[in-house]
Amino acid sequence: MSVDLLERLGTRFGVDRAVGYAVAARGWQLLTGQLTMLLIVFCLTDVEQGYYYAFFYLLAMQIFVELGLHVVIINVASHEWSQLQIVDDRIAGEPDALSRLASLSRMAGRWYLLAACVFVVAITIAGYVYFNWPTGRIPAGLNTLDWAVPWTSLVALTGMQLALLPLTSILEGCGQLPTINRIRFWQGVAGSAVVWAMMYAGFGLWALSGSAAVRLCGETYLVRSRFGPFFRSLRDADAGQQIDWKTEVVPLQWRIAIQGTLHWFATHLAGLVIFKCHGEAMGGRFGLMWTVLTAMQSASMAWVETRRPLFGQLIAEQNYEELDQLFFRLSRYSLLLIAIGGTLFTAGVYVVNSFPNTVFTQIASRVPDAWSTGVFSMAFFALQPALCTNIYVRAHKRDPFLIPAVVSSLTVAVLVFWLGRAYGIVGSGYAYLFSISIVQTPLWLFVWHRGKNSWHTEPARTASTSSGTSQK
After folding, report:
1. What is the dihedral of CA 287, 289, 292, 293, to 10 degrees?
2. Does residue 5 sit within a domain?
3. Which ranges in 44-143 belong to alpha helices (H)?
4. Quick check: is 468 in a domain?
5. Is residue 6 part of a domain?
6. N or C end of the chain: which has fewer CB within 10 A?
């Protein structure tokens, strides 16, 4: 197949270099995830599997200190980048836009340095409290030394990655996704190899720290080496116009922060409840299923998510017709992919439960039943339109989702806690499906549709409300 034909097919299906690498990285996770899953099943005990996934749920608590600022950074940077470009590895273009971008980088860097320090201390303590919290049942957990040292190492490595997040977010907003996604693809390949080797060698929970170390090396290479001149040009930029943090960042960030913290309860509370109320082994089964579905959703969202900077530029240019055509086309691909992925995964779980042999029986003992898996797969499909519209709306540097987010996230959290505690995985599945399909997605679509019609017909906004006076 010729290169020209591949490029034409890519254009037809909305696949450019950024999307191609993002899909390749997430596709790699899906494909190699099967081997990782088998190694977890055959190299970890069922109790270790429970701790393995509980670590992920607790690490996601970084939203409580990061407060969703990276999303705002991407959107604000994309508006400034519409007047800038890279020339000889350095930033060139409108001086005012450059100075505003530089001020954004400096302020975000200070914020994340503090957030990383708080994260390491607070989340380490939270893990010790959670894993040692009495539940009233016969303890089957690991000895403290078996999980505490790997946990502390993992939190420290994740904290160092958090400190680099504002810089990689700046790069995303400035349209450098092809390079970023290429490097992250190779991060994924190397990370998988490290996890496999460490699990096979018997290092157990330490495999997570190995994977985190690979990711940290990749992020460090991005900001210190590959884009070193890019960030030096930001540091060398003349002090001119500055981003007004109070008017251009905080109004969007505080809404995202509230939604992000509530989202943690909606998406990670179920695993922690099952781990504590139904045992580490049951928590491990839920975690494996949740990880596979999340990876599928992440891969399917690549079509839309990687176009966030382009959405911002089209909005800055008020090219709404092209914006909507692009968004609807990519969203259809995204919905189709998550539907196919969820169906195949549910069918696979059904097969391993229906045709017992040595391998299938071992796998079946580490995953939920096919019915529970199918319920969660439908819930993930129902969530997809909400995720797509969320990216579309925030590209406008607006966020009218606060009240819907509070309502939907609290609904999910309360129902998941209640039904998950009483009925385990299947109870959590019903709670999640009902909350997403009846509450969250309808609310998101309503807000998106109403806002889109209003914003695209109102008079042109002033420069101060879009991306600063230098934009117009």
Report:
1. -110
2. no
3. 46-59, 63-66, 69-81, 95-132
4. no
5. no
6. N
pLDDT digits (tens, 9 = 90+) for 422-454: 999 999 999 999 999 999 999 999 988 887 877
**Contact, 422 vs 272, CB < 8 A?**
no
CB contact set of 324 (below 8 Å; sequence gap of 6+): 452
When computed from its CA atoms, the radius of gyration of the chain, rounded to whole angstroms, is 22
Question: Domain containing 284: what range?
Answer: 14-462
- Whether 71 is covered by a domain: the verdict is yes
Side-chain-facing half-sphere of 237: CA atoms under 13 Å: 28
The closest alpha carbon to 163, from 65, 264, 306, belongs to 65
Our count of domains for the chain comes to: 1
Residues 335-348: tens digit of each pLDDT: 999 999 999 999 99
Average pLDDT of span 34-46: 84
Q: Are 352 and 360 in contact (CB under 8 A)?
A: yes
Residue 400: Cβ within 10 Å count:
16
- Helix (H) and strand (E) counts for the chain? 19, 2
Band of the pLDDT at 471, cuts 50, 70, 90?
Answer: very low
| Euclidean distance between CA atoms 445 and 353, whole angstroms | 37
The Cα–Cα gap between 257 and 250 comes to 10
